[in-house]
Amino acid sequence: MSDLLSQFFVQSFNGIIIAMAIYLISSGLSLVFGVLGVLNFAHGSFYMLGAFLVFTFTRHLLKTVPGNFWLALLIVPVLVALVGLVVEMGFLRFIYKADPLYQLLLTYGLVLMFSDAVKLLWGAQNLSVLRPPGFEGSVAVFGHLFPSYNVWILLPCSLLTMIGLYVFMNHTAFGRIVHAATQDREMVGALGINVRLLYTSVFAIGSWLGGLGGVIAAPMGAIYPGMDFDVIIDAFIVVVIGGLGSMAGTVLGALIFGLLRSFGILFVPQFETLFIFLLMAVVLIVRPQGLLGRRVSSGH
Amino acid sequence: MHTSSATPTAVPAGAGRARTGARDRTAWIFVAALVVLFWVPEVVLTMGWAEFWILFFTEAFIWSLFAVAFNLLMGYTGLISFGQAAYLGIGGYTTGLLLKKIAGFPFALGFIAAPVASALAALVIGYFCIRLSHIYFAMLTLAFSQIVYFTALKWYDFTGGDNGLIGVPVPDWVQDPTFTNYYRFVLVVCVLGVFILWRIVNSPFGKTLTAIRENPERAGFIGINVKRYELYAFMIAGAFSGLAGALITLNERSVYPDLAFWTRSTQVLLMSILGGVYTFSGPIVGAFLLLFMDADITQNYPDIWQLFLGAVLVLILYGLPGGIMGFIQSRDGASTDDAATRTRKSMAEFSRKFWYLFVAMLVVTGFFLTLKAPAAWMPTLLVTLGQAVVGALLFPWMLRRLGTLAPAWRLVFLLFPVVPLAVHILLRTPPSGLMIVVLWAVSIHTQLWRAEIRAAFRGGHPAGTQPRPGTG
Q1: Residue at a domain's end among B226, B261, B296
Q2: ipTM of the assembly?
Q3: What's the whole-model pTM score?
Q4: B155 contacts in A (CB within 8 Å)?
Q5: Which of B144, B262, B310 sits opposite A113 (nearest CB)?
Q6: Are A291 and A283 in contact (CB under 8 A)?
């Protein structure tokens, strides 16, 4: 009995770890959709770019600098945000009035370009980033061993992001505008807010979050071209389940995603991905706006 | 020959109806295409060209059928599916499983079962999907197609998982050494399929679908059961996609889960967008172009196929929202040189956007040049920078002068930055180079034309916000 309970604990904890990793990526995607109304396919590319940049920083540029991972953690998301800035100002800005699906296609075009650009710059082979010194081993949580990186870096970073986003959205002037824009974009413009600037900055923040997700995820597994395609569909699932544009929904969606995946591996090892897509389909059918999303017209 | 009986059936189908002058002619185009394309293998073999071209055409026909079926949803009904590959996969696996698992299963039955199974799957899936709109519809179709994909991938006992279903038995006549028989079989099936789809979109049913695309509410008010029609369109698209899937299975004599992966859905989406979604022939043109560029570029630049594809997609979305065929068909009767309408304002607006495109093209040029000679990155950088400097100095002047020039000269001026790009791409990989240059020229021309129209009507949409034609 206690064996079952401990297994339950291990899987729950693993699920939370998966959830926190995917949350970092999905939060930016959801934020951008909420404000700009653009479902950004290229968000996965920002994640990949973050991961590859942290490789370059820790393995080449700052190879001998102590604490290079922490420096990269500060610098890389900002660099990715700058790329996001260029993407928004150079491409996305021109098509906000177009059909949302054309925006989706445009960002898909960017995904294709990014993925080959990354392949050209870093090569097609798998790369890896070392865990920062002091976090290579495991740590015991209630008698079970977990990678100390996951417990002491991933988890706090995600929680800090969660709290940070909450505070930002609810307790800062700019954040309130962003929050208002997720509720009613036209009204925000009508009230005299510079919408163009708002969109650009929100997109940059979204890319920053994507880059952060990439940096944090880099030491957890291999870095490879194509990780953008793998992660973006997962992020879509999370935001669709939680509710497109809903920040609380993204947390919930990520938790459901993580727990379903970790328990899925335990009970139906082959079909766990299938169940996640089934859940996504069921949520879309029963509650198209997502679990915590605002009501949308379900017709045309 | 198996195909001889199919030829006459296409002939009378368009005849014998009121007001069908244009239809009769198009029906003859189908017959002519069938007759001409029927002899392609003979020509290829006689001229001693590579058999690759027979295989290429076979694949292009199959993808054309798939793209036209998909476009019944996207272009004609206004439902943009991100999971059309599901029906490709269902069709492919139906034929593959029936022929492989049941010994002696009749070939014709196994083949026909594919569209039937896909249509049934589309009925069930579509029943849920059509309740949602826009992005949610796209996401739900994506979810269902991934369910199909993962079922095929993980159900080892039944589908063979990622090892695929290898060695699907096919009749002897499919397996001739020059692939000619199978080419002809595919040709006849695809021409017939496309012809049926063409009849569907030109029937009252098809016109109803267009009405729904234009304005679902209004269509509902005049008594059309919108959801039911959308479901029918979803089923028809599914059925023909399944047919295409069966043809792919027979072509490769095996099925892999990859057939239903979501990138296949985006590929067919790209084909439709490239060719033009608001025309019937657009997806066919798109399918041929995309497959041709694929073959050409993967041969010359295997690493940057996606980069190229992305650049073409972005260029099309900005410059040619109607696709290639949409552009060709919309040029008739458009007035382009009313000097009074060319205002400084519209040109300034245009020049800003053009500048972005120019910079983008410089980046692409740099990539191509660097790839051609990775060691000589320094000269490449200098050439690219030189172009940027020349462009930065010349462009504002050129664009100021543009309004005073004759249209033909304007085009010459605007083509200026393409020349260096064109030269080196033409030298290296001619067809695709030509392709990107033509796309560029056409999109410039469209931009210019659009800027004038905007100026003529004073205001309208700000630069680049091109609403999708057809949304009410």
Answers
A1: B261
A2: 0.88
A3: 0.80
A4: 270
A5: B310
A6: yes
Alpha-carbon span B325 to B330, nearest angstrom? 8
Distance CA B398, CA A68 (A): 49
CB A103 within 8 A of CB A92: yes
Is B469 a domain residue?
no
Sign of CA dihedral A267, A270, A276, A281: negative
DSSP-H helix ranges across A218-293: 227-242, 247-267, 272-286
CA B330 to chain centre: 18
Residue B399 domain flag? yes
Of B185, B160, B158, B159, whose CA–CA distance to B171 is shortest? B185
For residue A280, give how far its alpha carbon lies from the nearest alpha carbon of chain B (Å). Answer: 7
Contact yes or no for B272/B64 (Cβ under 8 A): no
A127: which DSSP letter? B
Pick left, alpha or beta for residue B458 (phi over 0 → left; psi -120 to 50 → alpha; otherwise beta).
left
- Residue B324 parent element (H or E): helix B323-330
Whether residue B164 contacts residue B256, with contact meaning beta carbons closer than 8 Å, is answered with yes
Q: Which two tokens stand for residue B71?
A: 């476009």
The string of pLDDT tens digits covering residues A173-215 is 888 888 888 777 788 888 888 888 889 999 999 999 999 999 9
| B58/B186 Cα distance (integer angstroms) | 6
Tokens of B301: 């630049």
Do residues B249 and B350 share a domain? Answer: no
Which residues, 6+ apart, have CB-to-CB distance to B186 below 8 Å?
B58, B61, B62, B247, B251
Structural domain range at position B134: 2-261
The answer to whether residue B281 sits within a structural domain is no
pLDDT by residue (tens digit) across A247-287?
889 999 999 999 999 988 888 877 888 888 999 999 999 98
- A274 lies within 8 A of chain B by CB: yes
Give the number of domains in chain B: 2
A121 shares contact with chain B (CB less than 8 Å): no
* Amino acid making up residue B258: D
Q: Do A277 and B150 touch (CB under 8 A)?
A: yes
In chain A, domain spans: 2-286
